[in-house]
Amino acid sequence: MDILGLGSKVDVEFLLDPQGQRKQIEVKIDENKRSLQYIYYDGEDVNGTIQIKLKKNSKIEHQGIRLEFIGHVEMLNDRSTVHEFLNLSKLLTFPGELTESTSMDFAFQNVEKPYESYIGINVKLRYFLRVTIIKRFSNNVFERDICVQQLSQFPEINNSIKMEVGIEDCLHIEFEYNKSKYHLKDVIVGKIYFLLVRIKIKHMEIAILKKENTGSGPNIYAESETIAKYEIMDGAPVRGESIPIRLFLAGYDLTPTMRDIQKKFSVRYFLNLVLVDEEERRYFKQQEIVLWRKQEKDKDKSKQSAQQYAHYERPEAATNKSEDNGTGANSGENSSVNGPLSSENNSDIPSD
Amino acid sequence: MQKTADTSRGSIAGISMDNQEKLLAESLQNVRQHAFAMKRVLDQQSVMEGLKHAANMLGELRTSLLSPKNYYELHVVVVEELHHLELYLTDEFEHGRGSHDLYEVVQYAGNIVPRLYLLITIGHVYIRANELPRREVLRDLVEMCRGVQHPLRGLFLRNYLLQCAKSLLPDTEEENQEENKTGTILDSLDFILLNFSEMNKLWVRMQYQGHTRDLNRREQERRELRILVGTNLVRLSELECVNVERYKTIVLPKIMEQVVSCRDAIAQEYLMECIIQVFPDEYHLNTLNEFLKGCRELSPTVNIRNILISLIDRLTSYSTRDQQNIPENIQLFDIFSEQITEVIKSRSTMPSEDIVALQSALLSLSLKCYRDQFEYGNKVLENTRQIFDNIALDTQVTTGTQAAKELVKMLKIPIDCYDILDVLKLNHYKLVLQLLSYRERHTVCMYIINSILDKETIIPTAEQVTQLFDLVSTLIIDQPDGSLEHSRQTITNEDFVEEQNLVARLCNTFKAINDPDQQYHIIKTCQDTFKNGGLERMRFTYPPMIMQAYALTFRYKDIREQDEKWEKKCQKLFQLSNQLINTLTKLETNDLSLRLYLQGALTASEIRSENAETIAYEFFSQAYTLYEEQAGDTRAQCASLTLLIGTLEKVSCFGEENHSTLRQSLTQAATRLVKRPDQVRTLLLCTHLFWSAQRVDESTQKSEQIRDSEKVIACLKKAAKLIAQVMDQTAQVQLYNELLNSYIYFFNQNHPDIDINVLNTLIEKLQSDISKLDSTSSTTHTSSNDGDEFIRSQIQKTFDYLRQQSQLEKFQGLQINN
């Protein structure tokens, strides 16, 4: 709602939801600034009323009033590059003169909104309505952002993530996350099995990392941000222990995973499993998870409540191992290690 | 609710106690601050803020710096503060205001320790408010606690869980259909058993964390924490739906599995003990085999002895308490016997004291639970002996060792719970006793005798006496391995005296009731045994035997109507006694044998069997001979002579011939004494031999008093003459007084030659002597005043008596000053 100095004569108000039925969301514009925005989904109409308010006894001569619905990607480190992927335009009034405040209804039918609104570190994907009162010298421009959320279908394939990692003769663990794709209100449930422990572990945590990649070619910017840091184990386990993981996502500021949006940017999420030993050495393994937005339905409530105490159950016959954790059955298949644990010896500089 | 300050992590090594105090104080201070903040915002109905402060408070429990004891202190305070939160939330639910998402909300806490404490607290509240299904939440909590793998923090966390779950554990067979999945007893068992095994694992792990030089401290700390693990077992035992069957099929196997697999001696010892103590006796009775099998699988360093003993003792006291009987179908003894054998076999390094202690417990069990089945106890004793023989045949257990001490304890058990006659039936008892060295054998034998005396057990047959002597022979005859002790076996050694006095007293318990012949056998048995004991022991052992022999003659006399041979038997007894006393005469003092002879003479006189006079004379003459041999010790001689005189006065079986010989000998002996006063006094006693002493009239065969008044007067006069020769005036006066008393006696006895004038003469003499004595003593020695005083009061008493009597007609003419 850009109220410019010279707009003192005129103001524009967007009435998008006269019945007050549309959900609103508080969007974090930057560190200090938040705004309430209406939520729209792909294919939904965007309609409403524009109120043009004139100050008393003033009049505006114009070359026409235009309404646009725009979707674009702004690269924040390069203001000049704005990539529009959507621009619908309507002429609300032919050129003439406004002498009093007036309202005009409008409707964009079945608007395709292919992407989710996003405000990142280096990139912004915005949808907004823009009213332009065209004038001879400088136009009066009014904008109103809306928030678009991209609902996804249940993923058809959603395997669990299971991986055995380790440092040879030092630490072998096997971790399992119940899914590879999580919706934003989902719960990550999993387990860590300790197959070999020869280092003195102090604690273990799981972190959600958000990686935002922008640009292409030589101008790639990669940003990594720790969204959540969550201790899942205190103290040193011994061989054979299995440690439960249960991490609720709803409480964190997450977006769906975005890949190659307009060939301009990607936002991806990783689970980072970190083990810290007594010398503050950190051993970690990152694993990408896909986040998606699920349509919220009331019937999910009960399901959600059961998730409060959900535990990871192994799907197949491997269950006997979890019961036998007292003795740490270490059968042959476990001895191969799929991937190495990364280790960084940075007791001075914490990794995040 | 992200995280609290990360300062508290660090190494526990090298922290001084001062520092500990300080750290604890700081932590407590922080806890109080956070708790205060929490309560303040809760008062303002701000649950979320309250949870945030609670999480901060719980952050203090993340410390690694405190010792277990101080961590406990901290934990107590935190849990107490946490209780406020719980009460607040419960209250909210009761007023229908409770929020429904807290169980999820608290799971956002970044640090696991505060998160789990909060989760447990909320879970507790939610289950009570029926907000979430009980079964699921309990399962969730116990599983989620796996996240804390730090032993100390994990133990306390799970302890808190157990504490909260206490009132929530379902204890029903059937699930309550109406309510939110309440769960059944099986869920409770799963919950506690899982919590138990996790806690035990953490507890065991403490042993292996840290430097080896701190091992002792760590073990100490572990012992302080053991109750935390044990509480799980207590909780299990409190569940009402746990019955014998369930205990046997679910509870015990699961506990055992954990106990055995943890392979940690401290844990195994404690937990086995715990199982024994917390579960009811009936359970143990029905799971003996399972439990004992578990025992065999314990780590070799576990002190299995204490565990087994504890179980045996528990079952023993169960069976002896309230007349509870061990069910017929449970072969308690056989099971234990077998299992203990197995245990001993499987542990070749088991010290022998432990083996003995186990056998002791088994013995105690067999004696107390199967009182009538001697073969059980006997079998245990046999096995014990066998075990030692297997180690080294016929070798004694070194004195002072633990094994010896345990054996002593073991041998005391039958003595305590049986009387000796039953113990004698355990024919292996002796064989085990023989395993011991001299000192321990001595201890046990003393214990046996003391027990017999305390219980006043009567030993009725010669056979049993023989067995008993066989058992306590250590005290009765010299022992080949007791050579060091021999030198000490004299009358001057108090211990020896005490020991032999006990043996002597033991003889008094040998009583063949209603069977004098048996009693005779007993006496013979005693003689056969005691004669090997050496002179020093005979001093103690013979007298009771002789007295028993005398006593037996009276019993024979009592049944003389039924037993024709009674006189012969008495004769035999007297002969035996004579022989025995004769042996005693070899002792350095004659007093004992002299008295025994005199007693024999008296007895013979009382019995009046056919040849009583001969026997009595023999005994008396022996006594007199001993008296004569006593020369040298004037005081002893005087005392002995007094005894002789007294005895002769009482012995009534002598004819005139024997009697006159004896009385004259004694009278002469009296005058032959060295000291004048002794002469006087014995002579005065001799007067009775001529007066009230009895002899048998040859013609009538009746006893009659001698009444020889002339001799009496002669003695008295002789005495008076002797008194006149006494130099010491004080003594003289005293003797005059005694003489006067004798005269008064005979005056009262109507002696024909003693009249009131004789008395008057003596009184006058005495009075004048006293006044003389007064004048001299008041000027000369004052030191002998006490003696004087005594004499004066003696004389005074005599005079008082006379004054009283002077009223009587008989005493008319008595002249005595007032």
From TrEMBL, chain A:
Q: Basic and acidic residues: which segments have biased composition?
A: 311-324
- Please give the superkingdom of this protein's source: Eukaryota
Renumbered to this chain, region (Disordered) spans 295-352
Task: Return the Pfam families for the record.
Answer: Vps26
The record's annotation in InterPro entries points to: Arrestin-like_C, Vps26-related
Polar residues bias: start-end ranges: 325-352
Q: Which family does it belong to?
A: Belongs to the VPS26 family.
Protein name in the entry: Uncharacterized protein
Organism per entry: Adineta steineri
TrEMBL record, chain B:
Main localization of the protein? membrane
Where in or outside the cell is it found? Membrane
**Keyword line:** Membrane, Protein transport, Transport
Its domain of life reads Eukaryota
- Provide the transmembrane region boundaries: none
Q: Example GO biological process term?
A: retrograde transport, endosome to Golgi
Q: Which GO terms describe its cellular component?
A: cytosol; late endosome; retromer, cargo-selective complex
**Membrane topology field:** Peripheral membrane protein
A Pfam family (short name) is: Vps35
The entry sums up its family as follows:
Belongs to the VPS35 family.
Against PANTHER family, the record matches this protein to: VACUOLAR PROTEIN SORTING-ASSOCIATED PROTEIN 35, VACUOLAR SORTING PROTEIN 35
Q: What does this protein do?
A: Plays a role in vesicular protein sorting.
Q: What is this protein called?
A: Vacuolar protein sorting-associated protein 35
Give the source species: Adineta steineri
